[in-house]
Design goal:
Layout: H1 4-9, E1 17-20, E2 24-28, E3 38-42, H2 54-74, E4 79-83, E5 94-99, H3 116-130
Helix pairs in contact: 2-3
The chain binds adenosine monophosphate (AMP).
Amino acid sequence: MATIFSRIVAGEIPSYKIAEDDKYYAFLDINPVAPGHTLVIPKNEVDYIFDLNDEEYLGLQLFAKRVAEAIKQAIPCTRVGVAVMGLEVPHTHIHLIPINKEADMNFFKEKASLTQEEMAEIAAKISQNFGNTQSELY
Ligand code: AMP
């Protein structure tokens, strides 16, 4: 059975999309640790990030780098924090979270409560900035 993230990629389940290409997809986490919390996934359904082949792993990281750059431009923050856990959804995903201090990378604190309009606005802003990013290798 397809993972929930594959169903998002297929358009069967809605998402606040930020960017995609033929291999990767980025969208807002529905239960954000902070506004702008984004997930970056390979379209290929592989559960564990370190089971990706080298090319796909590096491609995912380069795609995530561009998304992180776009988040930083769209959301005022000191850095964009990175986390990979994947214990909930068995489809590789990189969490990108705008942070100002270490304590902001806290998955156990109360989640940010945003309206659909606010989520859509944030996604549009990050998405716009993604268009201006590029990577030397990507
Ligand atoms: P984990 O597998 O522990 O890294 O966490 C899975 C993440 O996916 C959580 O932060 C969820 O809020 C997020 N998530 C689950 N379902 C959706 C969805 N339909 N759209 C966006 N994010 C989701």
